[in-house]
Amino acid sequence: MTTLRLATFNVENLFARWRFKAGVDPAAANSRGWIVDQTLFEELGMDDKAITGAAVRELGADVLCLQEVENVDTLKYFRAQALGGRTEYPYVAGVDGNDPRLIDVAVLSKLPITRIRSYQHLMDPGAPTAPLFSRDCLEVDVEVGVGQGHSTPVTLFVNHFKSMREGRAETREKRERQAGKVMDIVTDRFGSASPGDRPFVVLGDLNDYLEADGDGGSGISRLVNWDQVENVVARLPEGERWTHYWDDGEDYRQLDYILPSVSLARAAPHTLPEIFRKGMPLRAVKYTGPRFPGVGHDKPKASDHCPVVFELEVHPPTA
After folding, report:
1. What's the gap between Cα 248 and its chain centre?
2. pTM of the prediction?
3. Contact predicate 248/285, CB 8 Å
4. Among 17, 136, 197, 239, which is least packed, fewest CB within 10 Å?
């Protein structure tokens, strides 16, 4: 048996060059291709990246699944500047996805990555001229237990679903289609009878919460409550499950998820996930614990999301 320390983290605009200013329509700004225009973009501060790096180092994850990364080259530069370089995380995976702001999902790993597959090409049946996945569903196999006389591939499905920026109700159906397709992708890979018997994890920023409110129900409940996975954050007390703070509504919600297959979840029945909040801005007053030096009221900060970590117990395959 090998312990795999797995994390997901929306690092909020990990850009090497620029980020969009508030009020700019990224699709319109990018209509003629990638043109850096200082009337539309502002430079991303290095203080934020330093705090993000401190958060990643403290996580100590074996495998780190990231959202809002500009591209693989940007991630490699961040690795060199903030994480100790290639010796710390020798393996990187990422594919350019669909977001007009050029934010992608990616993986940093201390363990060998042996398979990568993108689904950014899939079209949305609810809007046939648009892609289904707002960024991608990135499928990555990581070899666990290499050097111990055996190895087990664990498959990760890294996601960053449609945001609620235009309204929760207005965007719910898109997330429902994305969630349903992720389930289809898993069953296509591992079979429809009992895919949860296989070692996989669905994770990332699903951009919705499970609770119903004035805007209706959740767009991700079918996936999160699927009987082939477990939402391990639900092992925590209800008041400790939040991973994101939105100050306009004073909302502390779980938007970030680690959903291991039921076989992996059952192998670690008493393990609790960890939610790291030391990089959260001071405006998130519900968190009263320690913060990294330099964190400000809104920025600098590590991110507006908290990284989530879970330790899986991975058994070697049976003969």
Report:
1. 23
2. 0.91
3. no
4. 239
Which secondary structure element, helix H or strand E, spans residue 2, and what is its range? strand 2-14
Give me the residue label for tokens 């890979």. Answer: 189
Beta bridge partners of 216: 213
**E-strand stretches of 61-211:** 63-69, 91-94, 104-109, 113-117, 123-124, 127-131, 137-144, 152-160, 200-205
Residue 227 per-residue DSSP state: T
Q: What is the pLDDT of residues 254-303, one digit of tens each?
A: 999 999 999 999 999 999 999 999 999 999 999 999 999 999 999 899 99
Note the helical H segments in the chain: 26-29, 46-59, 72-82, 168-190, 221-224, 262-267
Please tell me the distance from the alpha carbon of residue 164 to that of residue 17, in angstroms, as a whole number.
26
- Closest Cα to residue 145, out of 285, 269, 14, 314? 314
Q: Copy the structure tokens of residue 171.
A: 């965007």
| Mean local confidence (pLDDT), 100-123 | 94
Report the SS3 class of residue 55: helix
* Residues with Cβ within 8 Å of residue 55, at least 6 apart in sequence: 9, 276, 278, 279, 292, 302, 303, 307
- Residues found in the chain: 319
Q: Is 41's pLDDT higher than 60? A: no
d(CA 183, CA 9): 21
Q: What are the C-alpha distances in Å from 28 to residues 33, 101, 243?
A: 10, 10, 31
Asked, as a colleague might, if the bond just before 300 is cis with ω within 30 of 0, I would say yes
Give the tens place of pLDDT for each residue, 66-83.
999 988 988 998 999 899
Q: Which of 260, 262, 261, 163 is nearest to 219 (CA)?
A: 163
Q: Tell me 216's DSSP state.
A: B
pLDDT for position 151: 87
Judged against a pLDDT cut of 60, whether residue 35 lies above it is answered with: no
196 phi and psi, to 5 degrees? Answer: -65, -10
110: how many CB neighbours lie within 10 A of its CB?
17
